[in-house]
Amino acid sequence: MIKKTLIFTILPLIIGAFSIFIPDFSRFYMWLVLGLYIPLFLYAIFLDITGKSKKSAKLRGYAGYFSFVLTSIFFALPAVRAYQDHLVILFLIIGLWLLASLLTFRFNNLMSKIVFGESDELRKYTFILHGTMFFALVAGGGGYYKAAEYFSNVFGDAAMFSYFSILLLVGSYWMTIFAHSTVGIFTKFK
User: Fold this and answer.
1) Element housing 19 (H / E)
2) 119 by DSSP, 3-state: which?
3) Cα–Cα 20 to 30 A to 1, which of 75, 110, 126, 151?
4) Buried b / exposed e across 52-85, counting CB within 10 Å, b at 16+?
5) Any idea what the Cα angle at residue 58 is, between residues 37 and 10, rounded to 5°?
6) What is the 3-state secondary structure (H, E, C) of 137-182?
């Protein structure tokens, strides 16, 4: 199955596997993750069984698109969980995610030039977009798992959870912009 479908269809499974180790893991979050995985998994199986993934680049594009959108949602869930008691901040997080999704989807031809750096006059926006994600990665310790433990020892668990959930939220916004900007590219495929 791996050889026929895109590797991006497995990306949310990898992100979800790491979510098991979240300290305040809840059954609701587990069922939410499973409810979002099952359609993606069934879609990947459908592409594999019918053999359409080799014939249609558009179907593979949709598989990658769904994968990046789901990964974006999973990156946003820790921030939603951290601020679930503060409704104004929660609505701001969800509203910004929806706004980024809708604007990028609406102007996907322009955003694809920014995301992929295809236009020289939009190159500064490309650096801003990718620089924001680079800053979030560096501020989060660059993937070094001891950074969160050190931050927790110095500042406390609540501050660490807020800090890293905001960094994941930046990654979520970046992934949703990336996913929705590619819609204009793969819908032209056959």
Assistant:
1) none
2) coil
3) 75
4) ebeeeeebbbbbbbbbbbbbbbbbbbbbbbbbee
5) 30
6) HHHCCCCCCHHHHHHHHHHCHHHHHHHHHHHHHHHHHHHHHHHHHC
Token pair of 102, please? Answer: 């809708």
Which pair of structure tokens corresponds to residue 184? 């204009």
Closest CA to 137 of 164, 107, 156: 164
Distance in angstroms (rounded) separating the CA atoms of residues 70 and 116: 21
Cβ distance 108 to 184 under 8 Å? yes
**What are 123-156's pLDDT values in tens digits?**
888 888 888 888 887 887 776 767 778 888 888 8
Q: HSE, CB side, 13 Å, CA atoms: give it for residue 108.
A: 16
pTM metric for this prediction = 0.72
Instruction: Give the integer Cα–Cα distance in Å for 131 and 138.
Output: 10
Residues with Cβ within 8 Å of 54's Cβ and at least 6 positions away in sequence, in order, are 4
Q: How far is 107 from 100, CA to CA, in rounded Å?
A: 11
Other residues' Cβ atoms within 10 Å of the Cβ of residue 101: 17
How many angstroms separate the CA atoms of 75 and 30, rounded?
Answer: 14
